[in-house]
Amino acid sequence: MTWPDTYGLLLRQATTIWLKARVDDYWSRVVRQGDRRPIDEHPQAREALKLLVLKRDPLYARADATVDTALLTIGQTVDRVERALK
């Protein structure tokens, strides 16, 4: 979600949690899912992802809570999200 007005509405109407990750983490997740489109159709895909993350991070940082998922397993991430919601 990158529309500031829409995100502002979301922040006012819901509890938001940013599942923060590093660019390399996002990239690895896409590749592990078997989605080759970012690589095959766009030779500069990794750089484009980096720019997208840089653009979105300040907006996402406004979330009610942040869970840095960089070194967490799925279970650990779920645990941290649950704690953030309490």
Task: Describe the structure using short key phrases.
2 strands, globular, mainly alpha, 86 residues
Summarize the structure.
By secondary structure, the protein is mainly alpha-helical.
Helix content: 55-70%
Largest sheet: 2 strands, parallel
Structural class: mainly alpha
Mean pLDDT value: 88
CATH superfamily (homologous) name: P-loop containing nucleotide triphosphate hydrolases
DSSP summary, beta strand count: 2
Low-pLDDT sequence parts? none
For the record, the count of structural domains works out to 1
Strand content: 5-15%
SSE order, one letter for each helix or strand:
HEHHHEH
CATH fold group: Rossmann fold
Cα-based radius of gyration, to the nearest Å: 14 Å
CATH class category label: Alpha Beta
What is the fold's blueprint, element by element?
Layout: H1 4-13, E1 17-20, H2 23-32, H3 37-40, H4 45-60, E2 65-68, H5 74-85
Parallel strand pairs: 1-2
What does it look like?
- 60% of the residues lie in helices and 9% in strands.
- The protein is globular and about 40 Å long.
- It has five helices and two strands, in the order αβαααβα.
- Strands 1-2 form a two-stranded parallel ribbon.
- The protein has one domain (4-85): P-loop containing nucleotide triphosphate hydrolases (Rossmann fold).
